[in-house]
Design a protein that fits this description.
Blueprint lengths: L6 H16 L7 H9 L5 H6 L6 H14 L10 H9 L4 H12 L29 H16 L7 H11 L2 H9 L4 H16 L1
Length: 199
């Protein structure tokens, strides 16, 4: 499939990885692809979203804010069965948590985020691979379907944006929805842009 990607589309994928790394995220999500799609202010996707105020800086700030706002997972969060089992042997989980936090401070039961795995010679010379999320892989598959739907043998940035819209979920769509993007109009603008490129 990637052999069909135009140079600008490949640059979007590469830039998405760069953006994820710069934001300190351990995955490449739809938000990183959206940043990459609008990074060139004169590019077709940025042009189509200009009236909505969707810029790379805006999406980057929103991605940073929304991802960092997600609470970290606590290893001691247990379900009702665990709580009941402990209670059956005389242990009150809430009392244990309170005692630990009183003695060791708030958040003492939360594990630190794991360090990213280092690759390459002693981990110094390689920045490591950041994986695409399942949703983002789906977006890239849908970009191929969009190209086929438009009878085109190549995948351009517009096709990737059309794949984002077609998938319809994820942080990128949330960010666009909050900016009141008219997805029907955007879809038409992107299709028109990629058709004119093919002509």
């Amino acid at each position: 499939m990637f052999e069909r990607f135009t140079t600008p589309a490949r640059e979007v994928v590469t830039r998405a990885q760069t953006e994820a790394r710069a934001l300190g995220h351990g995955h490449i999500g739809t938000e990183h692809v959206l940043i990459a799609l609008v990074a060139d202010p004169d590019g077709p996707v940025a042009t189509a979203l200009k009236d909505n105020g969707v810029t790379a800086d805006y999406v980057r700030d929103e991605a940073r804010r929304k991802v960092e706002r997600t609470p970290p997972l606590s290893p001691v969060d247990s379900d009702a069965e665990d709580r009941a089992a402990l209670k059956a042997i005389g242990i009150d989980l809430d009392a244990v948590r309170a005692a630990i936090e009183q003695n060791f401070g708030a958040g003492a039961l939360q594990l630190p985020r794991p360090e990213p795995k280092k690759r390459g010679l002693f981990g110094r010379f390689s920045s490591g691979h950041i994986p695409f999320t399942k949703r983002n892989k789906k977006v890239l598959e849908l970009s191929l379907r969009e190209a086929i739907r438009l009878n085109q043998k190549f995948i351009a940035p517009e096709h990737i944006a059309l794949g984002l819209i077609r998938e319809g979920e994820g942080l990128a769509m949330l960010i666009l929805s909050e900016k009141h993007v008219d997805f029907d109009r955007l879809r038409d603008d992107l299709a028109r842009s990629v058709r004119s490129r093919a002509a």
